[in-house]
Amino acid sequence: MSGRKSRAAAKEQLSLRVNGEHVCCAAIINKNWAVTVAYCIIKDPFKEITLCSGSSILYKNCTVHHVIKYFIHENYDSIINDYNIAIIQVTPAFSYNNTGAIKLTSNKHVRKNLGITCSWRYYLVI
Fold first, then answer.
1. CB of 85 within 8 A of CB of 115?
2. What span, in angstroms and rounded, lies between the C-alpha atoms of 18 and 40?
3. What is the C-alpha to C-alpha distance for residues 15 and 120, in angstroms, rounded to an integer?
4. What is the SS3 assignment for the chain?
5. Are 38 and 86 in contact, with CB atoms under 8 Å apart?
6. What does the pLDDT read at residue 118?
7. HSE on the CB side for 18, CA within 13 Å?
8. Per the domain annotation, does 81 fall within a domain?
9. Which residues contact 57 (CB under 8 A, 6 or more apart)?
10. 46/36 Cα distance (integer angstroms)
């Protein structure tokens, strides 16, 4: 995968962690909710899912948010990854001092085959 070096300005970016280890990225959609891919939500009562916000350094200087509840898209198919989306409610709420929400659009303005993805190393405009 090619891309450009990460920019610290990705204030909406979160680290999704299972038992304290980074496994996926997520993004803030408002002060209480985040969005991620469905396959990152691990349904195991012995595993703790948390989100980390406010830092562009993976394991430093972040605020830990605990999952209150989550919803996986009802049509999610783990075999072919259709509808691979989930939303997560957290506590404490996200503080917009060091973070911010992604800008969501309506269905009227959706472009096919266009998207921006963000990770801890690079971001890529497709």
1. no
2. 9
3. 8
4. CCCEECCCCCCCEEEEEECCEEEEEEEECCCCEEEECHHHCCCCCCCCEEEEECCCCCCCCCEEEEEEEEEECCCCECCCCECCCEEEEEECCCCCCCCCCCCCCCHHHCCCCCCEEECCCEEEEC
5. yes
6. 60
7. 12
8. yes
9. none
10. 21
What is the identity of the amino acid at 55?
Answer: S
Does residue 103 sit within a domain? no
We report the CATH number of the domain holding residue 57 as: 2.40.10.10
Does some domain include residue 74?
Answer: yes
pLDDT, mean of each 10-residue run, the chain (126 residues): 54 90 92 92 83 84 93 91 90 86 71 58 46
pLDDT of residue 58: 79
For residue 75, being part of any structural domain is answered with: yes
